[in-house]
Write a structure and sequence with these properties.
It is a single chain. By secondary structure, the protein is an alpha/beta fold. About 40% of the residues lie in helices and about 20% in strands. The protein has a five-stranded parallel sheet with strand order 2-7-1-8-9, sandwiched between helices. Strands 4-3-6-5 form a four-stranded mixed sheet. The structure holds guanosine-5'-monophosphate. Guanosine-5'-monophosphate binds next to strand 5, strand 6 and helix 4.
């Protein structure tokens, strides 16, 4: 899209990353209780998990559709995570920011790096687990993934953890309510 078409930006982009099991999704759900906050519904090629809803949690699409959207320039960032493709759609983000909303992205560190490289202004928050043993317990406890997938996610978590220095803020999620208060205050929602 030519840059002349860009909508005016009144809102604020908030990027949240962190290892799976660090509690990002719960924090996002709680942040969304505020009507000023709008969630970025990513497109993904991964299979839908139990309890997920197409169009609410993700747009679940086929790899061919994903590649077509890449060609069309529909994504502001996209990345491969755990063998699946994920991407943030440019248009809904521009529209939410033009409406003055807080646009909340839950994306991995590759995606956050891409947005930073593009010079996208926003608040970049890294959600960290209290420690890796807690992370393992959370991943096993939620029971959504097979043991070898849990191991893969733990390995990725360690790699991701090193990237926290690139973020504006690191929030340690040892106490959900405290982490939530901290993030709300960083965004200016208090
Ligand atoms: P899950 O499959 O567990 O929902 O997500 C796996 C990882 O993909 C998480 O780290 C999540 O933050 C990341 N992710 C979700 N949507 C996007 C996206 O649009 N772009 C990028 N780069 N990562 C995403």
């Amino acid at each position: 899209m030519p840059s002349g078409d860009a909508l005016p930006r009144k809102g604020q982009m908030v990027v949240m990353s962190g290892p799976s099991g660090a509690g990002k999704s719960t924090l996002c759900r709680r942040l969304l209780e505020d009507p000023r906050v709008h969630f970025s519904i990513s497109a993904t090629t991964r299979a839908m998990r139990k309890g997920e809803v197409d169009g609410r949690d993700y747009h679940f699409i086929l790899p061919e559709q994903f590649r077509q959207l890449i060609r069309e320039g529909a994504f502001i960032e996209h990345a491969e995570v755990h063998g699946n493709l994920y991407g943030t759609l440019r248009r809904p983000m521009e529209e939410a920011l033009a409406r003055g909303e807080v646009f909340l992205l839950e994306i991995d560190v590759q995606g956050a790096n891409q947005l930073k490289a593009l010079g996208e202004p926003g608040l970049y928050v890294f959600v960290a687990p209290p420690d890796f043993e807690t992370l393992r317990r959370r991943l096993v406890g939620r029971g959504t993934d097979a043991p070898e997938i849990v191991e893969r996610r733990l390995k990725k978590a360690e790699d991701e953890y090193r990237e926290r220095v690139k973020y504006d803020h690191v929030v340690i999620n040892d106490d959900l309510e405290r982490a939530l208060r901290q993030i709300r205050s960083l965004i200016g929602l208090e």
